[in-house]
Structures are given as C-alpha cells and as structure tokens.
Design goal:
This protein has helices spanning about 30-45, 120-125, 140-145, 150-160, 165-180, 185-195, 265-270, 305-310, 325-330, and strands at about 15-25, 45-55, 60-70, 85-90, 110-115, 130-135, 200-205, 250-255, 275-280, 290-295, 315-320. With about 350 residues, the protein is α/β, with parallel strands linked by helices. It folds into two domains: about 15-205, Pyruvate-ferredoxin oxidoreductase, PFOR, domain III (Pyruvate-ferredoxin Oxidoreductase, domain 3), CATH 3.40.920; about 240-335, 2-Layer Sandwich (Alpha-Beta Plaits).
Length: about 350
Amino acid sequence: MTTKETKLPVVNGAGFYEIRMESIGGLGANLAGKVLAEAGVLNMGFNGSNFSSYGSEKKGSPVKAFIRFCSPGMEVRENSPVTEPHLLAIFHENLSRNIPVTQGVGPDGIVVINTSKSPDEARDFLRLYAGTIYCINALKIAIEEKTRINTALLGTICKASGFLDPDAVKDMIAKNLGKKYASLIAPNLKTFDRGYNEYVLKKFKPDNKYPYIPFTRNGQKIGYFNQPMGGVIPSGGNSVFKDISASREGWIPVLDISKCTNCGECDITCPDYSFVWEDGIDPKKGKPARILKRIVYEHCKGCLRCVEICKFEALTSHKEFETDKTILEKGFTDSSKK
C-alpha cells in the first residue's frame, strides 16, 4: 500500500517533524513508534527514522520512543533523542509524577495523553506551560475492546498530527500484528478508530501559570571517582520509594475490609508492599493482632496476585476507571455498612 505523500505541517530548524513518546515497558510505545514511522516512510513517502530509549527490558521501566519525518528529498542524518517535540504522547498520566515528561514542549506543541481527566485538569496535573492537549481515555477503550492502549493512542496521535493518513497507519498495524497475531487485527483497528474519534482537546496559550521547562540531561551521577565501595546502591529501587501506578493496565484489587480475616496471605504474595498493617484487636478472638487496614495504590502495579490467593473474597478485581474515587483514596471498602 502506498498513499500520496502529504506536506508536513511544520518542521524544526533541521527540517524534521518530531514526535516523542513517554511510556513504560509493557504499554507498547516501542511498537507504536515503529508502526508510526513505517506508515510515514513506507506508506506516505516521507523520509524518517524511529528508535527507542530504555534500560533493562522490564515491565514498568521508563521507555521513550522517538520518531522523525522529513521531505523525501532530504537525508536523515539525525539520530539523537527528540528534545523539542512537535507532538508529545504520554502513555500514562502518572508518569509525570516521577519523570519530567513535558520537557521541551513549547507553546505550539501538541500533547496527547492517556487520561480520564479533562484538558484543564490534565494541564494542571502536568503543569504544562502551553500548547494543545488531546485527552483520550485509551485505557478504558483498550479494556472494552480487549486490546492495548498503544493502538488507541496511535489513533489520537494520527488525528492530532494533522498530516498522518489513518489508512496508512492502520495498514501498518495490520501488517505488524498479522505476522503473529492475526486474530487481534480487527479489534485493534477498532481501537485505533475509537482513539481517532473519542478525544477531547483544548489549546492553552502562555499565561505564566506554569513555567516553560527546557529539555535537560543530568548525565551520569556516579562514576569512577565517586562510586560507593562494595557495590552499594544508594538509590533504592524498591517500590516502597516509588510510584508504580503507571504499570497498571486498567485493573486493580479492591479490599472489602468486612470480609478480611487478616490471614496475611495477600501480603506474602504481594511483590510491592502495597498493604498497610497496624497493631489492633482481632475482632473474632478479641486478642491483640496485626490488622490489615488498606491498600496503597501508589505502590500497586495491578498484578492481581493478591486477588488470586485470597480465599475469602475479601480482595476482588475491578476496572480502575469504574472504581469510586473514595475507595481509591482510603484504600478499602466495607460491605457491612451497605
């Protein structure tokens, strides 16, 4: 399939239209960047490039994908990260709590974000200087269509770009999935179409509400002269110190405190220390005991192992976007009070 090349709406000083994707391992940003680049180059006639940046190939670790397009007569001699994107795609809103995802986004920039928030709420959450925000609840769409969020975001990215041909992108989605997962082509194309249509957008002008954040690189902090002795790791990688809620894919465990027997099996199986315990009195035996109080969703990546191991149905799986916010805030529900 080859479609007629269209003109790029804007380019930087080097002649490129640039896209940056901010994500974590497991959400499909690497594949999304590959699909987008192939659609532009192979199906639309642009020259371009795509590569991703990540550390260990581990679910939950930070991932960035970079895409560049230029005119067919121009050579691509740029292979550095995209620092001032024309379009920024954020695969999970909570990434902004730990990573400065909006670095380099100027007043003419476009931000596509996977969120249930309104554009005004998203801007305040991101502390975005200015630009146009496209809000798409890609997680909700992916759960309903039994797909992944990357194809929903591709639909919104395609729409927001103003030049990417949706048929060219859909063709590449089908070709990439058809190699191994032909049965997933139809639902993913439907997911793409929903992402292309089910967004909310708003443009924000610079108003001094939030400062412009330029892209910076901190470099390597530990090296030959200041490396701690004995292989000590001064920065703890444990989830007790980190917000890993961006790793969730739409499902969370909900604790019904009235059904809990405080057996502790959920705490044993949880890999991320998501359960909070306190000294108290066993309601059945009337003796001092450790009592389960709540779930800290900031540390929960949604693996649902606790749900699988709970024998008393005190822990059940729920769609996060359908869960009452008060339950998420206090970390439990109590069916005995209903």
